[in-house]
Known about the structure:
- The structure is a single chain.
- By secondary structure, this protein is an alpha+beta fold.
- Helices cover 18% and strands 30% of the residues.
- Strands 20, 22, 23, 25, 28 and 30 form a six-stranded antiparallel sheet that branches.
- Strand 7 (153-157) and strand 8 (166-170) form a beta hairpin.
- Helix 6 (175-188) packs across helix 7 and helix 12 (640-651) packs antiparallel against helix 14 (671-682).
- The chain is elongated, with a radius of gyration of 37 Å.
- Residues 1-13 and 561-565 have low confidence and may be disordered.
Amino acid sequence: MLSLLLLAVMAMNAAEQPAGYYKRAEGYKQKALLSQLCTIISANTKVIAYDDLFDDAYPYTDAENGYFIDMYSNVKYSIGDSRINKSYSKVGQSVNREHSFPQSWFSERSPMKSDLFHVYPTDGYVNNQRSSYPYGECEGGTRLTNGEYYGKGRLGNCTAPGYSGKVWEPDDEYKGDFARTYFYMATRYNTQIANWNGNGTAGQILDGTSYPVYKSWYLNLMLKWHRQDPVSEKEIKRNNAAFGLQNNRNPYIDHPELVEYIWGDKQDLEWYEGYIDSNPIITLPTNGSIVDFGTVYTGSTATRTIEVKGRNLTDNLTIALSGEGFSTTTTTITVDEATAGATVAVVYNSNRHANAQGTLSVTSGTLKSTVTLKARAIDMMEADEATEVTPTSFKASWLPVEDVQSYTLYVSGKGVAPPPSGEVKLLLDEDLSDGTTDWTTGGATYSEKTSFRLGTGSSAGSITSPAVDLSATGGLMTVLVDAAAYGSDTDVQMKMSVLDAKGTVLESKTVTVETAGGTYVAVLHGDAEASNKVKIESLASKKRILLTRARVYSGDASTLENAPRKVVAETGDSVKREITGITETSYVVKNLAKFGTFKYQVKAVYNDGTESAYSEPVAVTLEGSETLPGDVDGNGTVDVSDVTALINKVLGSADFPVERCDVDGNGKIDVSDVTALINLVLV
């Protein structure tokens, strides 16, 4: 029997709909709206064991004044009643668990088997009469009785249009409850229910699709019951109680109008929470949405088109724009234009490197919708002609750009492409201080006022990043997390992992998070050939973590505080060279292959760790010093190897500077030069 203490705790956990719970469903209609609701009410749900429903759930969800609420009979069964789950031959002898959506229809699988939103406490004998017959309407059906006890429902042949088989009809006071139960099942299990129509008698009502889910005769009947029997106070209390236990809700109790937007007479309209059809509303752009312009070269422009639409508007719409680099020529949209649907073209342009953010506001009277604009401007570097050219070196120079910590120079022989962008590069920088995140959440996560919390007093939590490319560093990455322990929690463990494309953990690091907080670093090895993700998680209940920032770098950035700063370092050989960490706007490249032909390109590494694009290549041919006559291959000596090199030049299979190959000085490269060179070697 459930203790009074546990009942008190459960009562404290009962909660109304959280603010923003259905936010992601706004702006959708019909099947798309159904799909959004499925995602919302399927996330982070909890399962109560079927055998524990009478102890751990029904005293809170389905009881009043110490007695269970039975929608199948007038019998008053008390909490802890001796008749719970007993045998029966009459009404009033047992109370058990009724699957209003028969469990044979989903093959008795979990979590459907114990889902509180369709499993109710009912009289066992009436439950048995209902069996797995679909709900319906029947005139003159059989109602069970036993003295003062009677069933609240009857069994008979269906008289509702479209079906004539046997059905069980609940009493009018609960028809709306059961209709909303069936709409819940179509939503919560929308990704599965299309495959259930072959189970048992389910095909009598299911049409084998994920939308509209039910056959037309049954859908019409459920719509009728939903409209005739509105949401009751009993349903509202039960919805809140079930949310406290199961961590999801029945959206058709919170917002009965959703039924009409998905299946009823408002299917052509997008749904918005709190909206009344006669009220004015700005339907597009979605308030709080983000438009990302991506990466733009400084001095060039990028344009994004934002759709604007409204219903029942009485005032023209005013367009306001803020943020450096963002502009638009549209300032007003008329009511008629907004009703039909209009667009606003927003242009981004910057003459310097920037990570820009702006705001587009659309207002009509007291209505307002705000869009966040984001863009990144990078420089297209300009490299100058090479100077100070020698047979083995040259000086590269370029025009400076702002907000730069260093430059990277790439030098190569003909036909070699620039290398991947740097060894250390900022890939992700997620600000979690306002409780929002683009990362995927798992387990128990909550938005605090200035941070994002992992874990509760009873559950752990996690966040997982979008995919990142580590091919430039052979899979090596660095994760930096700004975190603190929650409240007075001690010995709080945080795990940072890199996952491959299949979600397999490739490497992890666990750290102890202090109450005062700090930046915690993990250098991890991921998959160089595929996408990788980062997972940050708490490891135990009652060990909660507050996150404020998460950064992911390619390469080893373990010594960084904010951005990678490099010392000058050269890698490569005499034909191909990459020089990083240059702080000036020129650099002398030495020890190259003698008299070779090269090209060089340069890019900027900004203070925030991001990089510009490479400049256009500049060609340079090494020359400028005295040449030893006959030293065709430029190695400082005249010997047989030069004869071979010259023959290859004449045959067209090698390329050497003309001044080294015209041995006889007649201005042509031919066999006579080979003869002259042989004579030099023989001297």
